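Our consortium's second objective concerns turning raw sequence data into structural hypotheses that experimental partners can test. To show how far this objective has progressed, the report includes one record in full. It was chosen at random from the queue rather than selected for favorable results. The single chain below, 119 residues long, was entered without modification.
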Amino acid sequence: MAKISIKLTGIKELQQSIEKRKDLTPVKMIVAKHGALLKEKTISNMGAAYTAGYSTGATARSVTNTIGDGGLSATVAPHTEYFPYLEYGTRFMSPRPTLKPAFAYESVKFVNDLQKLMK
């Protein structure tokens, strides 16, 4: 009967690579950084879009950035009940998007920073 032997090489390198990638601190830092930048960009967009005389700044003041999932997610949201009407418009009012453009802008930077970690 033939004797079969298997030799695995590179196990130490594989283990070191796995241990190195197990630390998610850099990812958490990127999430926190871009969550804060998304909040700032959204508020900045609101300042430019909400220029009517009746604008009080309540929606901009209501924007929060909440870090969750152990630092792996950031939720940026305005908390006025009428924000959806401002963002998407109504049949009487044209939309004044602020959050969606901020997200489109910041998400590209976020993905680029995450890809730099993989190199």
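The partners drew two points from this record. The longest strand covers residues 64-68. The mean pLDDT is 87. Both points have been shared with the crystallography group to help prioritize constructs.
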